[in-house]
Amino acid sequence: QPETLVNIYETEGGRGFNPMSHPNIEDLRKGTTQVFSGIAASTFFPVPIEGGGTARIVMGEVVTGGAFALLGVEPLLGRAILPEDDIARGGHPVVMLSHGYWQRAFGADPHVVGRTLRLGRRDYTIIGVAPAHYRGALPPLTPAFYVPMAMANELMGVDMLSQRNSHSFFVKARLAPGVTRAAVIRDPAITAGIG
What we know:
195 residues, alpha+beta, six-stranded mixed barrel, two-stranded antiparallel ribbon, 5 helices, globular
C-alpha cells in the first residue's frame, strides 16, 4: 500500500525540506497517533568493518525498530530489526545485512544468521538478510547493513539521539486508516508538541 506512505521533513520558516532530529521524531510519534499508524526513521553513516586482519569503511544505515515491518519489507533470511531491538541505547548489537553485502562478503551463505560481524569495536550478531529489491531509505546510497537506531551513538561516536539540533534522520510514516494526505497537511497535530 505505497499510497499510505508519506515522507516527513522539517522546515524552517516554511522553507526547505530538512531531515529531522531524533527528539523531534519522538515528539512527532507521541503527538500524531491518530494521524499515523507508524513512523520509521533512519540515517546513514560510514563505519569500519573488520575482517581478515584488516578494516575497511562501508556505509551502514541505522533504522528504528519495526521500520522494515512498516515498509512491508520481509527479510530473505532470518528476521528484521524489531522494536525490542531499539529500546536500550547500546543494548542490542544486532545487524541485518543488505542483499548485496551478503553476497559480496559472505558468498550468499544461507547459514549466515547467527554469525558475527565486527562493526567499529564491537561484534554484532547477524539476524537477517534483506531482500534483493530493498535498497534502503535512499536507494542511491544502498547500505551494506542495517542496525537498530539505539546503536547509533555507539557506532557514530557522537550523541545523535538526544540532540534536538542534530537534524540527520529521514522519516517515513504510514497514514492511519481513513486518514488522507490532504488531511495530514492541514492537521495541526503534526506540529503539536515538537520543539
